[in-house]
Amino acid sequence: MNFKRMVIVGGGTAGWMAAAALSKTFGNKLQIELIESETIGTVGVGEATIPAIKNFHELLELPEAEFIAAVHGTYKLGIEFENWGKLGDRYFHPFGPPGADSWAAQFHHYWVRAAQRGAAREFGEYSVEASLAHAGRFGFNGDRKPNYAYHFDAGRYATMLRAYSEARGVQRREGLVTGVQRHPESGFIEAVILESGQIVAGDFFIDCTGFRGLLIEQELQAGWEDWSHWLKSDSAVAVQTESVSPPVPYTRCTARSAGWQWKIPLQHRVGNGLVYCSDYIEADEARQQLLANLEGEPLTEPRLLRFRTGRRKRQWVGNCLALGLSSGFLEPLESTSIHLIQNSIIRFIKLFPAEAICPVEIEQFNREVRLEMEQIRDFIILHYHVNQRSDAPYWVSNREMEIPDSLRHKIELFEASGRVFRELGELFAEQSWVAVMLGQGIRPRGYHPIVDQATEEELVAFLQGVRRSIDSIVGSQPGHEAFLQQLQQGVASRQA
User: Fold this and answer.
1) Which residues make Cβ contacts (< 8 Å) with residue 101, sequence separation at least 6?
2) 381: which of 98, 171, 402, 481 lies 20 to 30 Å off by Cα?
3) Is the dihedral angle over the CA atoms 8, 178, 326, 277 positive or is it negative?
4) ∠ Cα 172 178 184 (to 5°)
5) What is the average per-residue pLDDT within 151-168?
6) Whole-angstrom Cα distance, residue 202 to residue 319?
7) 272-296, pLDDT tens digit by residue?
8) Enzyme catalytic residues
């Protein structure tokens, strides 16, 4: 392996995730140096994840209980959305599939037929994860284990990964990067120059400098593809509050007049924020709207963030790779930010240069990232576009806007027949699209004909059986807070 010196510019979640994964994978065959400055803050408000993060932790061989303890984490079974269809509407996007499928038709086809005849409960009541979430329970008792992710303190996560990385030889250097040295012929980055005058040379560079894109954009001019005409929000205000009740095992996303508010419960506090569009609401009004809808006393001053939704046209240029916010930004509605970091790290490891950097491998990496981000983009746009609200201009504009053809096709197919297909390994499976479309009021005109093989009595009995099974699973699990306490006690006893 000719590439022996890796320089990561920027810390935070992206930088230390990269350091941890690369040091675990390559060991002492790769010299890794991470440059960060304590004078530059990190965004650090992304505290919710999706289930795939467990795969990253398996790569690191990171025990779940120790991870939960280190980051003051809680469990997440999905997201509850409020006011996204009509004002007062509420639905749950669970991480697991609802009910039970046949080989030809998914569960929602059976539910659609029953709902058309008035013989079904709310769709979310046939989900194990949604039922556990609303009962405030979590656990692994029985044969049916829930699908889950985590909420955690992003700052503590970066600190934990830093300790993990440094134990495997990663060197951290304090400093501000003020210049770049490049090869006069290839254009590759040869070194970065610090404010102190130090020169840090490397064979490969990873840009984790956030929205600035210090290497990937300011130096290498990767280009930007803007998506703000579809995803209109350009600002957020975030604040941490005291916990006033036991942490629930799910994220809350509540639509407001010109955006949406998140609520993420941790063991020791609650993360809150309002994502909004500055064309429809002023910063001071957004701040007041957030503060007026908090349940606990603020622990921090509200923090304003500005962003652009879109992506770098190239995430890998020459011998430089962009991760995290430097590679692009999709608002955190479906908690995909950390997943995109994780996937790019794993994708890069799979395509890691052996002898020389190969242009066709760079092209493959950039194609995969582009497709992944476009698919997630469409799923996020879906939430905005299929709203039924007429009380605020922001929501009307989202409903009336033109959308990507790829998304329009999915919506029209579901409206006609209830069918949804997962394409090219996209992140969100059929069950996720169904949860949002049904949750926001789309009712398919038809369903798969195999469903009509069942009589009315058999269909009702089938749905009742699903509910009995869910009731049994939910009843056998402890409360979420009690489960966390048991976990903590186990960690403490092992450390004693």
Assistant:
1) 107
2) 98
3) positive
4) 105
5) 96
6) 10
7) 999 999 999 999 999 999 999 999 9
8) 76
Q: Which three-class secondary structure state does DSSP give residue 92?
A: strand
How far is it, in rounded angstroms, from Cα 176 to Cα 169? 22
Give the predicted TM-score (pTM) of the model: 0.96
Q: Compute the distance between CA of residue 290 and CA of residue 464 in angstroms, rounded to an integer.
A: 41
* Cross-strand bridge partners of residue 36: 174
What token pair was written down for 351?
């395509």
Q: Strand locations in 166-315, DSSP E?
A: 171-174, 177-182, 189-194, 199-201, 204-207, 224-226, 235-241, 251-256, 259-265, 270-276, 303-306, 310-312
Q: 321 with 340: CB under 8 angstroms? A: no
Coil vs helix vs strand at 225:
strand
Q: What is the pLDDT of residue 430?
A: 95
| Calpha distance 133→151 (Å, rounded) | 14
The first and second tokens of residue 282, run together, are 């002023």
